[in-house]
Amino acid sequence: MLSLRMENELRTTFEVGTRLRAHGLTEQLTQVGMSNDTDIVDFSDNSCTCREFQINRMPCVHATRAACLRGMSLYDLCSPYYTSEYWRGAYSETIYPVMREVDWIVPNEITGTPIRPSNVRRPPGRPPTRRQRSRFESATRLRKCTHCGGLGHNRSTCSNPIRPPTV
What we know:
- By secondary structure, this protein is α+β, with helices and mostly antiparallel strands.
- The protein is built from five helices and four strands.
- Helix 1 crosses helix 3 (61-70).
- The relative contact order is 0.10.
């Protein structure tokens, strides 16, 4: 059984995938997508040309649609790392606290080795001003107008009457 978060992720991916068209190319290959934007899912090595299936080890929208077309279980395509049993097993053993730092026995070759900063250069160009959102974060936030208090627009585009001040 998948963890609750991954179960919800799989359900969302499945719902998005139902809107795509799919047809089998061979016994293992399935083409999924709309018009010119298509990807190919290969069930022989659980891969998709969008590469999301390989990276996350969780079926992408293309793989969920292809699996439904072929009558496969979506849970068989998920990595066992996402199951609740796997997480319980990972934390089932006793975790011992770390001793005080003054009691540590550290070899001389480790204490005598100087630690230098890595040789990483900053990439050329202006650094990004906004952080990139992950796939799980929602990207849309509704604006709130300071003129009328309405949602979906701002003061400069407002055509509503002024709201009375609240006391």
